[in-house]
Design a protein that fits this description.
Helix content is 37%, strand content 28%. With 673 residues, it is an alpha+beta fold. The chain has four domains: 300 residues; 99 residues, Immunoglobulin-like (Sandwich); 112 residues, Immunoglobulin-like (Sandwich), CATH 2.60.40.10; 113 residues, Sandwich (Immunoglobulin-like). The chain has an eight-stranded antiparallel beta sheet, with no helix packed on it. The chain starts with a helix and ends with a strand.
């Protein structure tokens, strides 16, 4: 009869898990774990006969009105005075009012929103026209590209502490009450540490969110997004208090209160993370909450289990085999729930079963998830070793069991670390941008003053740090390789006199039919910082040394941009959004052959003008020759530089340094008629 009941219970449990998976698969719609722009009115690239009264934007997640910002910029770079950010007419939308006397022209909308679902922020930019002709705006897309910040180390650390503390609190409670007869080994130390970790983790996450959004803690906690942090702080502090109280007594009531408080904190996280961003959110939030609880029972329970084994070894008492077997069965069922709910959450984050492969292959979220699964499989394998080999030997030898559990704890810590990273990443594959990919290296071309020698220098990968330098040195008129005895690079950063000039000697590479090297190569870390560099190529042939000056700019990071086309009187303005959320607005006035002024304006993540401590602009002409322009500060974040341009393709390489020392880079290509 007992076996029949157990079999019926097992079949019922498996059935519930399978039905849960099927229901959630049916209910979950495509996910977007960061608030991307879904649509806007006016739409990106739309041309209107008259000025709209408002701009309304709909997002894939509900935006926090108090922490979200919108900036509208005219073609000439002036900021338009708009109304406050308000709730839009559609769900998950916001709206701002425009002036009634808005003139004809092209307007760039820069936005940054914070999702109330998971607290992540996203920024982007698009343009629309009023009273202008077709073809004046690029690009015209239904879903403008957006950018999100990388994970914050403090936020990841906070999540690891939070998840570890809550998992141990839940695991100690369930294991103690179900497997160990109400006893938690080393409870005087174990429970307070678990509660303290959870509390410190919640505090770290709160401060990390405030720093990431660049708002005060008071403003954060007073917003819709901050409400979940208030609940998290409250529940983790309750867990700490309950854990300290439970550590001072062997009663079951206070231990149960600790587990309940920790479970409440898990519920807060389940309803304020990625799961809350799905539509509908309830099935995913339930799956996430159950996932957290099961991880607590499975992984969190390993800590009191290990404490029990060590305690019995210290006291010279045999390990209670029955209690270990009970925990093993409990952990087995918890593992089944972890796998089921984890599968549900993976499919939900991807947006459907058919999108799982793309998420795993194309996103850092997917890569991290794969590593987490591999480590989890290691844990499962270790558990199987204990179940099949270690536990049967416990009565005579507990060493193997103790060693395997110790390895399990290390792997479990890895799982929690990966979980903290995972919840800070975006599961959506990166959107295609309107611009071609950045080159895979940095190049510079130039000639000596007497125009006898031309040098093309290629630096790979072209970023700050170790690089490979390859110089092709040819006769200026014949374009044939020059027979040199020695080639040396003298490298110094522009605008950084405190950094001494570095030297790199190149070696010959390849030999032409006449025995002359076709190129000269070398490797080193001379490009130690991002930005613009003066490079002098010294070519020695016999007693003669020729110097070819070059200007080399390290490769700019990938950016997204929109172009607001100007009229006959106004230039085209291109706004670049960097991966960190700052923006650089660039334009050449008037943008024709002859005398021009190149303008650069920097904006912070809130769309406000960003003061710069320095700016370098390098103009690369149609012949590949580069020139560092003389820049003049107009306002704290707005600079202009005169430049003479000929007809043809030009590239303007911009290296801006903020007052905080951050380097912002963008490259603008211009075709001069």
């Amino acid at each position: 009869m007992t076996r029949t009941r157990h079999a019926a219970f097992h079949a019922w449990a498996v059935g519930v898990v399978l039905i849960t998976i099927a229901c959630v698969f049916a209910l979950v719609s495509p996910a977007s774990a960061h608030a991307g722009l879904e649509s806007s009115d006016p739409a990106a690239g739309e041309l209107l006969p008259s000025a709209p009264a408002t701009i309304e934007m709909s997002f894939t997640e509900p935006p926090d009105l108090e922490l979200s910002t919108v900036t509208v910029v005219e073609t000439n770079g002036a900021v338009v005075e708009i109304g406050p950010v308000e709730r839009g007419s559609a769900p998950r939308s916001l709206r701002v009012s425009l002036p009634a006397d808005l003139a004809d022209g092209v307007y760039t909308v820069s936005w940054r929103v914070v999702s109330t679902a998971d607290g992540h922020w996203t920024s982007g930019v698009f343009a629309f026209g009023v009273g202008v002709t077709a073809g004046t705006i690029e690009p015209s897309t239904d879903a403008p590209a957006s950018t999100t910040p990388p994970p914050s180390p403090l936020a990841v650390l906070g999540k690891v502490l939070l998840y570890a503390g809550l998992a141990v609190a839940v695991g100690a409670t369930v294991t103690g009450l179900v497997a160990f007869g109400g006893i938690v080994p080393a409870r005087r130390l174990l429970l307070p540490i678990a509660g303290a970790c959870a509390g410190l983790g919640a505090i770290a996450m709160t401060f990390a969110e405030g720093w990431l959004l660049d708002v005060s803690i008071g403003d954060l906690l007073g917003s819709d997004t901050g409400r979940s942090y208030l609940w998290l702080l409250a529940t983790t502090m309750t867990t700490l208090v309950a854990a300290v109280a439970a550590s001072r007594t062997t009663g079951r009531g206070r231990l149960l209160a600790t587990g309940v408080a920790a479970a409440a904190a898990m519920l807060v996280r389940a309803t304020s993370g990625h799961a809350a961003a799905l539509t509908p959110s309830l099935p995913s939030e339930i799956a996430q909450f159950v996932h957290f609880l099961a991880i607590g029972v499975w992984i969190g329970g390993l800590v009191p289990l290990f404490a029990l084994v060590l305690q019995r070894r210290r006291d010279g008492v045999a390990v209670p085999v029955d209690q270990i077997r009970t925990f093993s069965r409990l952990a087995g069922w918890a593992l089944l729930v972890v796998v089921a709910t984890g599968t549900v959450r993976t499919v939900g984050e991807a947006g459907g079963i058919g999108d799982v492969a793309a998420m795993l292959a194309e996103t850092s979220y997917g890569t991290t998830l794969i590593v987490k699964v591999v480590v989890a499989l290691l844990l499962i394998g270790l558990g199987a070793v204990n179940r099949r080999r270690s536990i049967p030997r416990l009565a005579t030898d507990a060493n193997l069991f103790r060693q395997v559990v110790a390895i399990e704890l290390v792997a479990a810590l890895g799982v929690l670390g990966l979980t903290g990273t995972l919840t800070s990443l975006n599961p959506d594959p990166p959107a295609d941008t309107s611009r071609p990919a950045q080159p895979v290296d940095a190049t510079a071309t130039g000639a000596d003053f007497a125009t006898t020698t031309r040098v093309t220098l290629t630096v790979t990968p072209g970023i700050a740090g170790p690089n490979t330098f390859r110089a092709r040195i040819v006769d200026y008129d014949e374009a044939t390789p020059i027979d040199a005895d020695e080639v040396t690079l003298l490298i110094a950063p522009i605008g950084r006199p405190e950094i001494e000039r570095a030297t790199l000697t190149l070696e010959p590479e390849g030999v032409a039919d006449d025995g002359v090297p076709t190129a000269w190569t070398g490797a080193g870390t001379q490009l130690s910082i991002a930005g613009a560099w003066d490079v002098v190529v010294q070519v020695r042939a016999g007693a003669r040394t020729t110097e070819v000056p070059l200007i080399l700019v390290t490769r700019a990071p990938p950016t997204t941009s929109v172009v607001a086309r100007g009229s006959d009187e106004l230039p085209d303005i291109e706004t670049f959004t960097l991966p960190t959320g700052e923006q650089l607005q660039l334009y050449l006035d008037p943008g024709t052959a002859g005398t021009n002024e190149f303008h650069v304006t920097a904006f912070d993540r809130q769309g406000r003008e960003l003061p710069l401590s320095g700016l370098i602009v390098v103009a690369v002409g149609p012949d590949g020759a580069a020139e560092a322009l003389d820049v003049t500060r107009l306002t704290p974040g707005h600079f202009a530089a005169p430049v003479e341009t000929d007809a043809g393709g030009w590239r303007f390489q911009v290296v801006a340094t903020t007052e905080g020392g951050t380097v912002l880079q963008a490259n603008q290509d211009q075709e001069i008629a």
